[in-house]
């Protein structure tokens, strides 16, 4: 009788799902870096993202939307959920590698769907690795379908360029009352692109946590565009880098021109912060925005896939000059 090697079935894990607490942040940061670094095959996985940060910035932006999974008293994984008005997305979702394929991500995704439900978001999605059947399959179970690629793009920031006349403003320079008026103007602009889209959470987080600044462009007494920029260590950009987390210009006949002006303003802002590079992600369904970025000199550094609930396109359509990547 021949005996074949048998793998004993793994015992089901006892997983506790709860809100992520401030005291968890060092462990959560470690799990996030270890998970991505391991998945990407880095020799030292903990070096993933260098001195850039997702965990603390996103927890501080909204602690009630950060979910933890605990096994045997230890942190096994986390997920961060973001609400932009009528739009919601999640990530980074990370599980400690020794717990992979034990269903923990799915346990974190159930309350994530609950938050979308509670918030009443109309459009929801995530950004993931386009080449991973595991990732795509996992999210499909929750009704998210792969759509267009999102390009993560970069442009260098010359240190010695002659200073251009400043045609933009910084949110951080405004007085408190003017900040509220400016947030209203930003909301009006994004609402004209997708009903209910409101990124005030990002603008406030960058301002309160001093992660960078929001670059504002005005014309004819109205806000024509804005860009929420992270810059430097401890932000989502990292040392000597600037990252546009969200940017949009008002739709209309001058949108392409205004978008170019906003990109130039972001580059100037990046230079003012001593950054060597400026990065920004754009979904390729926003073809006009992508082409304008290529024309401006941005190059594609990496690509991932956007997955959207029920395959709905949200604001991902040509003619929308908007930057975000839901990383
Ligand atoms: C991606 C990640 C969050 C998944 O976490 P996890 O706890 O291992 O996921 P789960 O066990 O809940 O679910 C994985 C599912 O994919 C399935 N799967 C695994 N490999 C697969 C493959 N090659 N093709 C298709 N499906 C696959 C599993 O079988 C499981 O489904 P099942 O429960 O129906 O069997 C985790 O691997 C991780 O942290 N990766 C590194 C960081 C990362 O990439 N985060 C996500 C960024 S979008």
Give your account of this protein's structure.
The chain is of the alpha+beta class and 327 residues long. Helix content is 31%, strand content 31%. It has helices at 25-39, 55-61, 104-119, 133-140, 176-193, 200-209, 255-272, 287-296, and strands at 15-19, 66-71, 74-84, 87-90, 94-95, 123-128, 144-156, 169-170, 212-219, 222-232, 238-249, 277-283, 299-309, 322-323. The longest helix is centred in the middle third of the chain and has 18 residues, at 176-193. It is globular and about 70 Å long. Bound molecules: coenzyme A. Coenzyme A (COA) is lined by residues 35-36, 39, 91-95, 100-106, 128, 133-135, 137-138. Coenzyme A (COA) binds at residues 35-36, 39, 91-95, 100-106, 128, 133-135, 137-138.
Write the layout of secondary structure elements.
Blueprint: E1 15-19, H1 25-39, H2 55-61, E2 66-71, E3 74-84, E4 87-90, E5 94-95, H3 104-119, E6 123-128, H4 133-140, E7 144-156, E8 169-170, H5 176-193, H6 200-209, E9 212-219, E10 222-232, E11 238-249, H7 255-272, E12 277-283, H8 287-296, E13 299-309, E14 322-323
Parallel strand pairs: 4-6, 11-12
Antiparallel strand pairs: 1-2, 2-3, 3-4, 3-5, 6-13, 7-12, 7-13, 8-9, 9-10, 10-11, 11-14
Helix pairs in contact: 2-6, 7-8
Coenzyme A is lined by residues 35-36, 39, 91-95, 100-106, 128, 133-135, 137-138.
């Amino acid at each position: 009788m021949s005996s074949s090697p048998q793998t004993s079935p793994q015992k089901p894990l006892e997983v506790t799902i709860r809100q992520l607490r401030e005291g968890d942040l060092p462990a959560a940061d470690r799990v996030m870096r270890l998970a991505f670094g391991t998945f990407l095959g880095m020799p030292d996985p903990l070096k993933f993202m260098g001195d850039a940060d997702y965990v603390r910035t996103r927890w501080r932006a909204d602690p009630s939307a950060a979910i933890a999974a605990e096994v045997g008293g230890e942190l096994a994984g986390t997920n961060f959920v973001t609400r932009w008005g009528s739009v919601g997305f999640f990530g980074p979702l990370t599980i400690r590698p020794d717990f992979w394929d034990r269903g923990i991500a799915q346990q974190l995704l159930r309350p994530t769907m609950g938050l979308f439900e509670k918030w009443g978001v109309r459009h929801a999605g995530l950004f993931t690795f386009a080449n991973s059947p595991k990732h795509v399959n996992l999210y499909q179970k929750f009704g998210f379908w792969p759509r267009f690629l999102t390009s993560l793009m970069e442009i260098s920031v010359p240190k010695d360029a002659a200073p251009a006349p400043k045609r933009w403003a910084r949110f951080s320079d405004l007085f408190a009352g003017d900040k509220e008026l400016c947030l209203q103007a930003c909301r009006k602009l994004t609402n004209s692109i997708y009903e209910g889209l409101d990124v005030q959470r990002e603008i406030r987080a960058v301002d309160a946590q001093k992660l960078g600044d929001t670059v504002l462009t005005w014309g004819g007494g109205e806000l024509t565009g804005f860009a929420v920029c992270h810059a430097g260590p401890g932000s989502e950009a990292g040392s000597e880098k600037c990252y546009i987390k969200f940017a949009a210009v008002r739709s209309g006949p001058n949108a392409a021109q205004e978008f170019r002006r906003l990109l130039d303003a972001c580059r100037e802002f990046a230079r003012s912060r001593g950054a060597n590079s400026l990065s920004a992600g754009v979904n390729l369904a926003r073809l006009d925005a992508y082409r304008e970025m290529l024309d401006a000199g941005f190059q594609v550094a990496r690509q991932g896939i956007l997955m959207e609930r029920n395959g709905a396109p949200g604001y991902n359509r040509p003619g929308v000059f908007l930057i975000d990547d839901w990383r």
